[in-house]
Inverse folding.
């Protein structure tokens, strides 16, 4: 889901940077109010975890690859705003140092993976968990569903961003200037492979870690930054 | 053991296992992620390289492209796995340093946990 340079036209890139700047400012302000010095190492581990988990490419045999983002997990443990900052840092390092995701697409990639995933994931988890106890099985199920739903909505959005490009930017003869695939191809491709394969990976990673932390360190699940 | 210590160890284990994310796709002959093709792959897929894509894709030259060392494209999986682990370490250290720096500006010093 790391959109590279050259797939999105300048207008799309600009719009997403413009959308992200106030979100980054808001996230810094909110985290500044709530983050305690003690929680900084946890935020750092969360960001590094997200960075590394995205390196675990899962193959569709003979097809493409994809990966979990770990964003829902970080959001459950630290809250969506702190998670947004953590994933943004991971995505910026991936783009600048490793060429994974374009620098012109940092705004769009951050919107998909550092905003949509933590916020949709966090609120889905909170909504399904309800008032259940910290060690309730319901929280594991909530984490599973939240992981699946959040990454799928992000993938759908990425598909729409790709698919709009041939409509937005083409030469006089109709040849695409950026992503050549329209909505009819990009949306089913991105949504389909995440619904069928990669969504489950995010769901399983999120649920397993929450289950493990419930047993080992339940206080971690109860100490989010809010 | 402190929670944080356990989590750092878990992160270290993940880093050591990270080459799985390189070896499994290779083994199952899976190509690039959808929408993350290089210009040459794009030419095979649609018969041309979109003009804007060609121009923008050359905009940035990452120091460790695709989590490997430059010029190692033809190396075997063992070498690439090594480069992958080094990339995971470098990336994690950088991410941790940046969050630590941000934390200095953002976190409350009062320890009311």
């Amino acid at each position: 889901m790391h959109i590279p340079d050259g797939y999105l036209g300048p207008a799309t890139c600009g719009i997403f940077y413009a959308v992200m700047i106030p979100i980054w400012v808001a996230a810094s302000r909110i985290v500044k109010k709530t983050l305690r010095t003690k929680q900084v190492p946890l935020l750092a581990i969360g960001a590094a975890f997200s960075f590394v988990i995205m390196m675990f490419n899962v193959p569709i045999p003979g097809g493409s690859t994809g990966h979990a983002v770990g964003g829902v997990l970080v959001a459950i443990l630290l809250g969506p705003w702190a998670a947004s900052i953590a994933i943004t840092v991971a995505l910026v390092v991936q783009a600048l140092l490793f060429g994974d995701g374009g620098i012109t697409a940092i705004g769009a990639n951050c919107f998909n993976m550092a905003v949509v995933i933590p916020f949709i994931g966090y609120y889905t988890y909170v909504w399904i968990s309800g008032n259940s106890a910290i060690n309730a099985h319901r929280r594991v199920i909530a984490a599973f569903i939240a992981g699946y739903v959040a990454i799928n909505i992000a993938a759908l959005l990425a598909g729409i961003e790709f698919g709009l490009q041939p409509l937005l930017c083409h030469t006089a003869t109709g040849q695409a200037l950026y992503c050549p695939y329209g909505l009819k191809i990009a949306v089913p491709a991105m949504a389909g492979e995440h619904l069928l394969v990669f969504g489950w990976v995010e769901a399983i990673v999120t649920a397993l870690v929450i289950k493990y932390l419930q047993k080992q360190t339940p206080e971690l699940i109860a100490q989010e930054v809010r | 053991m402190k929670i944080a210590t356990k989590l750092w160890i878990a992160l270290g284990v993940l880093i050591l296992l990270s080459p799985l994310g390189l070896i499994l796709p290779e083994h199952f002959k899976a190509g690039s992620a959808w929408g993350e093709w290089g210009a040459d792959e794009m030419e095979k897929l649609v018969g041309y390289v979109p003009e804007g894509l060609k121009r923008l894709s050359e905009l940035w030259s990452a120091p460790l492209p695709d989590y490997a060392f430059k010029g190692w494209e033809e190396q075997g999986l063992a070498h690439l796995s090594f480069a992958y682990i080094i990339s995971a370490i470098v990336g994690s250290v950088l991410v941790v340093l940046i969050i630590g720096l941000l934390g200095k500006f953002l976190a409350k010093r009062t320890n009311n946990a």
